[in-house]
Model the fold of this input.
Amino acid sequence: MYMNYISMAVICSLVAMAISIVMNPMILKLAYKKHLTDNPNYRKLQKRPVPVLGGMSVYVALVVGILFCNFFFPTDRLYVVIASLTVMFFLGFFDDMLDLDYRVRFLCQIGIVFTLWSFGYRIDTFAGLFGVTYIPKALSCFLSIFVGVGLLNSLNMIDGVDGLASSIGILTSVICGAYFFTHYDPLFALLSIVFAASLIPFLVCNVFSLKYKMFIGDSGSLMLGILAYVFSCRIIHTRIIDWNDQFSVSMLIAVYSLPVFDTLRVMLARMAHGNSPFKADKSHLHHMLLNLQYPHIMVTLILVLINLIVIAIWYITSIYVKSINEQFFIVFGSSVIAYQLFYYLLKLISYRHPRTYRIMAIHSQKASTLPLTIRNSIRNLIDGNVKRHIRMRRAKTKALKKKSE
Done:
């Protein structure tokens, strides 16, 4: 039985990846033709216009991959999720094109989360954390909207460097997929793995290619957020699942620790300075690492590694710490140290010890040499530069032979 589920997941994932690979060049051509690009400005990190339709290939690949699952497994219970993804995709698409007012985005996000809540995707328990096993309906609605809108915006706001949002999406989807698989929930395990597979081709284009480079845009990051909410509800919701895991809340905090804690810090800091929490600035943790002269690929690797460390702490405590309250405080404290204190430590060093900060920047450039070399090698392979270099070498060799003759 397990092998059947694994085979289904592999086949549907390969279909999703193939769709995404085929669509990426077509979407890239459309974006340049219609000028659907993200143009450089004082706040943007890129130096040239970059298409923002990466979310389109992810969306189509995911939907086709899930529909293909119907050949092996009925997926009709996912139709409300696909409908929510569709609305989020178009909301993000119009936001990318028209720069919608934040109040319009908020109302749409609240409406979608409320719709999912009414279909049973709700937070109505803490799975025993602090002794809470049931949350009243009205409070559950408020809490679900708060968590859902929070996840939507936190995953949208960390999309600041190449590969970060998609890497977090792949990491969280794989972990949630493994959790669903081990807890006998094959339908959502399939959804998680197919979504991760849909993101992989985009990640490769986003990080390792100049020729096919795209941004995932708000259309993609909002899909990441709505699926994060769906996965979270599915894991802790006890009414439609006949199993319950007492460590699920701590696990979810660990899995989504990077977007949640970094966004919380940024929003609280903005409000403390009298600004809107949604006013864009350069106060995210990835901006601090960029100031240290780390390239995008290193910033993504460092932040994903920190997230993995927090997840590892959760996993160790789930084995050795029997109290779910103690485990929660350990995971919560680890997340605060990993993201909040780390940011303020770097900021303190930059202000109080600028010489030390400059030395750190020099070392960061040295530490980035190997990842940049690997990235450039993969980039040459993807963009076709390897073949071009071989042809140029052959042409030079022929020219030298003719001269010698």
User: Anything to note?
Assistant: Residues 256-367 form one domain.
